[in-house]
Design brief:
The chain is an alpha+beta fold. The protein is 40% helix and 18% strand. A hairpin with a 2-residue loop joins strand 11 (224-225) and strand 12 (228-229).
């Protein structure tokens, strides 16, 4: 949990008064997110998640609430937003947006089974087939266009990122399909119950962007173990995806590029987050795992993907 906001019991009780959730029975902080401070709340009426958005403003959260309503209307498995007594999709605390969602029972699995990976691929293909939400961003929030934010710095990682940016700008085929993407399908954003995928969480990076980028990020977040990609796991992800949306030969050829792009993008986020925005001596080197994954994909033979 990105514990940038300290939520005391008194603060939580005060915030919950805005909602018609009943008396609080228990509460506990939630791990997993890296840009929110969240807590699970059990009340007389059910279980809920309250999140303080440490890195999102009011406009961002308005967009998120529209996305969640859109997904619910299309019966996509995700969390359901709870509105206040007055019908508002969120409130404020300490100048930050706060929203409440129905808590989804299940488990988060660091090591997804082949059957689970197939389900993730299928769900991702269904998401990519949905119509976009009006006003949804047309670029990924920490994609290529963001790298320039740090490229004037002096650090070995910055030199590496500069080279990757130059390569990716040349290698990416701009004709690749774009659609409704999640952008952050890591294992800790997936909930399973008895081996069945019940929800995809955290749509805060949603946008209209390359669908292959979403697949690449899911490979980074679900198919790498002990700092190395498992192509057998990637195959399961793609198998599930192709049950809904078969890949063309050009897409298969570009998948390698987008897996590398996704790993670079995620490493950039971690470097910027824990070295520049919120320095953490414990997390400042976390980007290395992802930069090594990017280099691993770069060195792979194209035949692995075709």
């Amino acid at each position: 949990m990105a514990d940038y906001t300290h939520l005391t019991t008194e603060i939580i009780k005060e915030l919950i008064r805005e909602y018609d959730l009943g008396e609080i029975v228990s509460m506990a902080p939630l791990d997993g997110g890296q840009a929110n401070s969240s807590v699970k709340i059990n009340t007389r009426t059910g279980a809920f998640t309250l999140s303080v958005c440490d890195e999102k403003n009011q406009e961002d959260i308005l967009g998120l609430t529209r996305v969640l309503a859109h997904l619910e209307a299309h019966k996509f498995p995700c969390t359901r937003l709870v509105t206040t007594r007055g019908g508002s999709p969120f409130i404020h605390y300490d100048g930050k947006p706060v929203y409440v969602k129905a808590f989804i029972e299940g488990e988060v699995c660091p090591n997804l089974s082949p059957k689970m990976l197939v389900q993730v691929g299928t769900a991702m293909a269904k998401l990519h087939g949905l119509p976009p939400v009006p006003g949804m961003a047309g670029h990924f929030p920490y994609g290529l266009q963001s790298f320039d934010e740090i490229l004037d710095g002096s650090h070995p990682y910055v030199d590496w990122l500069r080279g990757k940016k130059k390569f990716l700008e040349t290698a990416i085929d701009p004709a690749m399909k774009k659609g409704f993407i999640h952008g952050d399908i890591f294992w800790d954003n997936l909930v399973f119950s008895h081996g069945r995928l019940t929800a995809v969480l955290d749509f805060e990076e949603v946008c209209t962007y390359y669908t292959l980028f979403d697949m690449g990020m899911a490979a980074v977040g679900c198919c790498a173990q002990k700092g190395s990609f498992s192509m057998d796991r990637v195959k399961q992800l793609i198998t599930g995806y192709q049950q809904i949306s078969p890949l063309t030969k050009p897409e298969k050829k570009q998948l390698k590029i987008f897996m590398e792009y996704a790993a670079v993008s995620a490493s950039f986020w971690r470097f910027r987050q824990y070295n520049l925005r919120y320095f953490s001596s414990e997390k400042k080197d976390n980007y290395r795992e992802l930069s090594l994954l990017a280099d691993q994909v770069h060195a792979m033979d194209e035949g692995c993907f075709l």
